[in-house]
Amino acid sequence: MSYSTTEIHPNVKRVIFTEAEIKDRVAQLGRQITNDYKDSKELVLVGILKGSFVFMSDLVRSIYLPNTNVTLEFMSISSYGAATSTSGVIRIMMDLRTNIEGKDVLIIEDIVDSGLTLNHLMDLLNHRKPNSLNTAVLLRKKEGLKVDVPVKYIGFDIPMVFIIGYGLDFAENYRELPYLGELKEECYK
Ligand code: IMP
Ligand code: MG
């Protein structure tokens, strides 16, 4: 079941990517990951809550690695309050429950803006000596980047607008929308 454009949420200015567009792109990323990790013994997919939960659930079902021990873990990090730009303050609310030493680790994140959150996270996880550490991000705001953080898999590059839906929130709302939409400016200004 998909939404027609006449049924979009009243606080959405426009749909940036439809359900079908997201589905196609996520399937492509899944195929890329499947190919890149086919010789991996242990792959830990680390979803960053809450924003990545929809992306992660679709992405993992596009990955097929019958010879790899694939496991899912979650971390919860807080960087934003109700504001729409990064505070630079990052707190670990929930850490991994597994030792990642010697394993291949793929961080799954919803969006990279300044890159501060991801940069901090990669530093932290690298100290735990994984065999490899990479990142899959659904959205990247290229003009927002303040630090040079390496992202191996990127769904879409987007302009500097505030995005909601498909797991992404504004003040904890709109995560349930099935598409990626631009939040109307009057909703946050
Ligand atoms: P960064 O540290 O500036 O890269 O911020 C990344 C985090 O900010 C993401 O994990 C999101 O939680 C949040 N974020 C940045 N831009 C958006 C957006 O357009 N919509 C929703 N959340 C966003
Ligand atoms: Mg996030």
The gist of it:
This protein is 20% helix and 31% strand. The protein is α/β, with parallel strands linked by helices and 189 residues long.
Order of helices and strands: EHEHEEEHEEEE
Helix content: 10-25%
Rounded mean pLDDT score? 92
Query: What is the 3D shape?
Result: globular
What hetero molecules are bound to the protein chains? inosinic acid, magnesium ion
- Measured by DSSP, the beta-strand proportion falls in 25-35%
* Number of beta strands: 9
> How many separate helices?
3
How many structural domains are formed by the residues? 1
Radius of gyration: 16 Å
CATH class equals Alpha Beta
Task: Write down the CATH topology.
Answer: Rossmann fold
Enumerate the strands of the largest sheet in spatial order, edge to edge or round the barrel: 4-3-2-5-6-7
Distance between the termini: 33 Å
Query: Unreliable runs, pLDDT <50, ≥5 residues?
Result: none
Structural class: alpha/beta
Q: Summarize the main sheet.
A: 6 strands, mixed
Proper CATH architecture: 3-Layer(aba) Sandwich
Keywords: Cytoplasm, Glycosyltransferase, Magnesium, Metal-binding, Nucleotide-binding, Purine salvage, Transferase
Organism: Dictyostelium purpureum (Slime mold)
Pfam families: Pribosyltran
InterPro entries: HGPRT, Hxn_phspho_trans, PRTase-like, PRTase_dom
Jot down its keywords.
Rossmann fold; alpha/beta; three-stranded antiparallel sheet; purine salvage; single chain; magnesium ion binding; 3 helices; binds magnesium ion; 189 residues; binds inosinic acid
